[in-house]
From TrEMBL:
Start and end residues of each Fumarylacetoacetase-like C-terminal domain: 172-433
EC number: 3.7.1.2
Cofactor(s) listed in the protein's UniProt record: Ca(2+); Mg(2+)
Binding site for Ca(2+): D146, E219, E221
Protein name, per record: fumarylacetoacetase
GO biological process: homogentisate catabolic process; L-phenylalanine catabolic process; L-tyrosine catabolic process
Location of the Fumarylacetoacetase N-terminal domain: 40-138
Superkingdom per UniProt: Bacteria
Species lineage: Bacteria, Pseudomonadati, Pseudomonadota, Betaproteobacteria, Burkholderiales
Gene source species: Pigmentiphaga kullae
Amino acid sequence: MRDASFMQAPGASRLNETHDPALRSFVASANRPDGDFPIQNLPLAVFRPRRQGGFRVGAGIGDLVLDIGAIEACLAAECGPAVQACREASMKALMELGPAHWARLRLGLSRLLREGSAFRREAEPHLHPIADAEFLLPAKIGNFSDYLASMHHISKVIRVKRPDHPELPQSFVWSPIAYHSRASTVRASGYGFARPRGQAGRFENDRPLTDPTRMLDYEVELGIYVGTSNARGEPLDVDAADAAIFGYSALNDWTARDMQGWESQPLGPFQSKSFTTTVSPWVVTTEALEPYRAAMSRPDGQPAAPACLDSDANRARGMPDVRMEVLLLTERLVAAGEGPVLLGASRLTDAYWTPGQMVAHHTLNGCVLETGDLIGTGTISGPGDDACGCMFELSRGGRQPFPLPNGEERAFVQDGDTVIVRAHCQQAGRPRLGFGEAVATVLPARPQA
């Protein structure tokens, strides 16, 4: 009989055999302790082997991706609807099936890919190298909202912008703050984009210039995919909202800080945020993250959440303890054959609001969330100088450029720079769960027409 000690953890009633840290896969690369995709993870992506056939949903295992739609005969009949949904070039159909089907598919894949699997020979032809695959967005993003969930981030920014009056907005401690962004410019990792142009308060001959941003920045975030929608006009309580989350991806919500400062008076960000958002193509499911959740905590002196955003379960289960990293690869580093430089490391548990609270707040006024909607957590920063989630924090608004190990300096992102956002969960006695990477490169601005 299998040792059930892996169930003895906070939230253990929500754990099952797929979370057992002793599980190993017949895919050898999935058993490496430094890998991102062990059998306890099984993240999903929309992929195809390079230039071979149509895109479909696959599951990551080690350095391979399994074509789920091709292995229906290896799974229990109850997995049939989910397998059928995975033959599409989007996760939306799978999301629409709901949590019970998500769980059945995860269990079926876990049993199929374990050491000693009776269907190893049948499954192996449908495992493809991730390095040779192409990826799309997990789903066509219908709506994208971005939150401001980190007290550490907003505090650091305000100290730069208003050093004489560094008080937090009163609304922040009582409700999550967010804005609606442009879904059409969310893109999957691995592309280049032109430096955006726009007005930023610079004038020539008494007329505002429309020139390339001089303060291009990244924002280290986690993306939240809505799996099940709410009825029109019906708010979700915080527990129902948490259960509606299908999974999470690493996300970089790029920002033109100078354009943002200009256009955010009196409304909010628009062109400074809508030019591109980068996401990892991989979605780590909510169920996979269950063992890595940490109880919610607030800084001393901060009030409890209002009743509409509070519950015993939300406080006890909090949020996944996701560790975020941002790295910079410059053209000079590439030319010298050197790797990217780590700029910051932070944790989702330092956020002031949980993902469940963000989703619940989104529906509070009757707003309808739709399957496949994407929600960003906002910049994830920690209390220390090594836990900055954007360059604005690192360079004190550009006033204090910081050195890189090769002698270069940065105040903001320059042309030719590649920014890499990574995320993973790590816990003693459990395997590392990775989210893949959100990578994009800045190209020179297009000539002005």
